[in-house]
Protein: PTS system mannose-specific EIIAB component
Amino acid sequence: MFWVRIDNRLVHGQVIESWLPFTDARYMVVANDELAQDELRQQIMSIAIPLGIDFSFVKVAEVQTYLDSRRLMERDVLVLFASCPDARRAFEAGLDFRKLNLGNLHYGPGKRQVCQHIALSKEDETCLDFLRGKGVNLDYRCIPSDPVDLPG
Structure:
């Protein structure tokens, strides 16, 4: 399963324990501009990734090129973004995905809490409206066993 998720914590327990098994992903691509240039943080995050899972840290604009170069588009891959603008940028740069899982987007100033695990800024909402307008289905699940739609 090719699965794209937004989670501002990127690699953490829910991703490792729930989403990797759910997606059967053997590859994890963490798309984040800051992390792609920070080897120390990459090493720290990679400690949590199980053996047998290939992983890479790439810049957001380079996700599609990376996936193409490794012939991963038809494979079981989990792509992680930290924010809605990053997911939009990757989509605009050519990453073709039809479903986007919104996992954890923490509350902060100027954000509106839309469900227990998702708080959106105006920019986030604009990005999600853009993606929805391009035919991307939004999936608001923190973990795979959660309901897909937003509560009430």
Notes: The first helix runs from residue 13 to 23. The chain has one domain: 2-104+133-139. DSSP finds six helices and eight strands in the chain.
